[in-house]
Batch of 2 targets.
Target 1
Amino acid sequence: MPTVAIIGAQWGDEGKGKITDYLAEQADAVVRFQGGNNAGHTIVIGDSVFKLHLLPSGVLREGKLAIIGNGVVVNIADMEEEIKQIEEAGLNVDGLRISDRAHLIMNYHKKLDGAEEIYRGKKSVGTTKKGIGPAYQDKIARYGFRAGDLLEPELIREKTKFMLPMKKDLMKLMGAESCQCTEEKFEERLIGWGEKYGKYICDTSVLINDMLDEGKKVLFEGAQGALLDIDHGTYPYVTSSSTVGGGICSGSGVAPNRIQKVVGCLKAYTTRVGEGPFVTELEGDEMIELQKKGGEFGVTTGRGRRCGWLDLVVAEHAARLCGFTSWAITKLDVLNDYDTVKVCIGYEIDGKVEKHFPASLAKLERAKPVYKEFPGWKSWADSESMAKSGMGALPENMVKYIKFIEEYTGIPADIISIGPKRTETIDRYGKWWN
Ligand code: IMP
C-alpha cells in the first residue's frame, strides 16, 4: 500500500505543483484532501497550458484517478470551467472522483466571503474570495450541502427551503450583493449538477482504501501550506481547512497508519499572500528584487506575493506538525545572484531567542529574526545539465545551504528543484513507491 503525501511547509506557493506532477507520474491516484479552488497551479503539457484550481494534478494524466476527498470544498460551477478547459484541449476527466461527503461552495458563500472581509476592515484576512471560509462555516454548523446530496432531489428540496431564505437574509444583513435566485431555480440547478456529475460522485474513502489494499500507489496532494492551517497557522490569517499532516486522514478517510512518506515542500526563501505576520519579510527594493526574480505573482488572484528570507522556525513548526520524512527544496535557482543569503534560525522576542513558532500574533509582531548568513553562489551553469549530473554539479555554497537545512531540521533534502522544468530536478532518493 504505497502512499506518498506532499504538503507545503510555509504559507503556500512553495512549488508543490511541480513536485506533485513529478511524483504523480508513477502514482495510480492523486487525492486532494482539503481546501478548494483557492489553490492554483499551472501545468504545461506539450503546447497546452492548464491553470487548475480545484482538480487534482493527476486529472491530466490518462489512466490515473484524480480524487477529490471529503475534506475538500467543491464549487461545481467553477469546476465546470476547469473541465471545459481540459475537454477543449482534447483530453477528458474520466478519472475524476468526488467524495459524496465533500461540501459544496455556492454563490452565496462567495458573496459572503467578500462581505465578511469588508466587515473586518483593517483586520481583513486577504482571502481569495472564493467562498472557502463561509463554505466550511456551513459544514461545521451542520447545514452545508454535500456532493452526495446532488443525487437526492428530495433532500435538495428540503434543504433549499430553509437554506436559501436564511442565506438571503444573511446577505441582506451583511450588505452583500443580493441573490436573485428563486428556490425553484436553485433546486433545478443542483439537480442538474447531480444528473451531469453524479457519475463521478462516490464514497472515496472506500475507493482509496480498496486501492491501497490492492497495492496501488496513492499520492496525497496538499493545498496551501502548514502555516495557513486553521489550528496551527497564523490564526486568524489562515485558510479554513486542516493543511497539516492530520488533514490527510480526516480529509480523505484514510487512517494515520496508512500514510508512509510525507514530503515537505520548502521554497528556498519565504512568500505569503494576503495579510498576517511574516517575520523574515523584506521591504522596499530588496523585496521587489526577490519578487521579480521568483516570479512571485499568484495563479488564483494575480496578487504579488510578499517575499522574505528562508525561515527555519517556520520549517520546524511545519515539520513537527506534518511528520515530514523528506524535504523537496524548490526554487533554489532564484537565489543565484545574491552575494549573501540569509536563513532565520530563531526569533528574538522581548530579549529572548525563541526557537518555536509562537501562537501569539503580538509576539510575532515583536519578533526580530535571528539570521545565519551564507555566502551566495554565483557560479551557475545550465540547470538541466547540472540536474542531470546530480548534487556534485551544484555550486559548493548552494550545497552548504542545503546541508544546513538538513542538519537544522534533521530531515533529508531528497528532492532539489533548480528550475521550473521537470528536467531541472534532482531526485536523491528515487524509491518513492517501494
Ligand atoms: P481563503 O483560503 O480564500 O479563505 O484565504 C485565506 C488566506 O489563505 C489568505 O491569506 C489567502 O491568501 C491564503 N491562501 C489561500 N489559498 C492559498 C494558496 O493556494 N496559496 C497561498 N495562499 C493561499
Target 2
Amino acid sequence: MTLTDATTASPTRPPFKPGQLFIGGQWKGASDGARRDVLDPATGQRITDVAAATTADVDAAVAAARASFDSGVWSRLSGRERGRVLLKAHDLMRARAEELAQTESADAGKPITFARVVDVEHAALQYEYAASLGQHLDGSVRETPANTHAYVRHEPLGVVAAITPFNFPLILSSTKIAPALVAGNSIVHKPASDTPLTALLMAEILQEAGVPDGVFNVVTGSGATLGDHLVGHPDVDKVAFTGSTEVGAHAAALAGKTLKSFTAELGGNAANIVFADADLDQAIGTVIQAFVFNAGQFCMAGPRLLVERPIYDLVLGILRDAVPGVPFGDTTDPATVIGPLASADQLHKVEALVDRAKQEGATVVTGGERVDLDGGFYYRPTVLAGLTNEASAVQEEVFGPVLTVQPFDTEDEAVQLANSTPYGLASGIQTTNLAKAHRVAARLDAGICWVNGWAMLDPAVPFGGVKASGWGREYGPEVLHSYQRTKSIVISLDEGAAR
Ligand code: NAD
C-alpha cells in the first residue's frame, strides 16, 4: 500500500488533507497559504505537504482551545464521559491501524513491522489506559482539626501546548494528548516539523470519536517559527514538551517567564551494563536491540555499552559478527529491523559524530559509514571501541545506530561510568545475580532501569528523566499530575457561618 492509498483508502471517512491545519474543528490552510514538503526518509522523495503555520495560526488555535475550555463543553464533563470518548478513539485507531502504520512508516522512515507492532500498538494503548484513568479522577476528603469540612479537587489546567519530536510522532503525541484530554484540558498540538502526518490523522480520529470542536487543534510547521510564540502565549496554561535538551531548556526558560506549568521529556544517553555473569545470549540480543531500534533515534536507546572486563573481548567479537546481519534497508519489507535516519540533517549529525570519534581514537568494530540505498538517509549500524569516557561519542546523545563499548572492573566503576554523562533517562543491567541488580538499579541516575531486557514499557509504568533528561512523569497514574491542578475547598461547619 502506498501512502496515497493509505490516506485515501476508506470511503467512510473524510480524506487526508494536504496543506491543512486543524483549528476549531475545521481544516484550513496556513494564513499566508504557505506549505512545507514532507519527505520519505527511505527515498528522500516528497510524499505530500502540510501547511506551514504562521504565528497568526497559532493565535487562532490557542483561541479555539481557550474558547472550548472556557465553555465547559469538555472540561466540565465527568472523567467517565471523557474516558468513553477516548475509548472510542482507541477503537478507531485500531480500525485504522494499517493506515496509521503506513503513514508513520513513510513519514518517519520506520520499518513497517515496527510501525505496526510498536508505534500504532503503543499509541492505541495510551488511549485505552488514559480512558481507564477517567474512572479515577477522584479528589479526597481531608480530616481537619477545626470545625470544617475540607476536600480536595483535581481540576484540568486549561490550554495545553503539546510539542513533540520527530522520532516517535504517534506514540509521543499520544502520551501527552490522551492523558491531557482525559483530565479535561484543551490542546494545541505542534508535532515535529519533519514528521507531522499522524498528528493530522489523529485530528480526524479524535473528531470522529466525539472530541468537541476546539478541544484538539493541530498546527504544523517550523518549531523555530512557532515554538516561542506558542510557549510564550498568554492563553496557554501548560507546556508539555518532548524533544532535545537544548530546545527544552530554551522553552522551559520562556515558559518560566510567564510562570506556566512545564514538563520536559528530553534527551538521553543510557548505559547498558553487562556483568560477566549475564546470560550472554539474552544480553547480546538486548544490547543490539537497545542501539539499533528505530535506527538509534530513541531517547531511551542504550548507546553506551559497559562490559565487565572478563567478557569484554568476547562481547566485542560477538558484536562484530552479529551486528552486520541485522536486517537493514527497505522499510516496506516486513523483515527489516533497521531503516534510515528520519532526515538528511539527522544523517549528517551521526556521520559527523562518528568521524569525530575516529579522530578521537575510536576503533571501528563494525559499520562506521553511510550507505547509498534508494536515495534514503541510511547509516550502517556501528560499534566503536577504544574511546575514553570523555570522548564526544560517549558523552553526547548520538541519536543514530551507534554503540560505544567500554570495559569496567568493579560494580562501583560501572555505576560511576553509567552516571557520568549529563543525562538520566533510562538505564539497563544484564546479570543473573538478582541482589546485584537491585543494588546497582538503586544507584543509577535514571528515571527507569530495565533488568535483563530493554525498553520494557507499559502505559501503567511511570516514565521520565532526571538531570538533563527532564522533569515530570508520563505514563502511569502519575501522568495526571502533569495535567491537573489541585484545589482545596474548606467549608465552615459552624452554625450561622453562612448567614
Ligand atoms: P527538537 O528539540 O529539535 O524538537 C522538538 C520539538 O520542539 C519539535 O516539534 C520542534 O519543532 C519544536 N521546537 C523547535 N524549536 C522550538 C522552540 N523554540 N520552542 C518550542 N518548540 C520548539 O527535538 P527533535 O530533534 O525533534 O527530537 C530529538 C530529541 O528528542 C532527542 O534529544 C531525544 O532524546 C528527545 N526525545 C526525548 C524523549 C523523552 O521521552 N525523553 C522522547 C523522544 C525524543
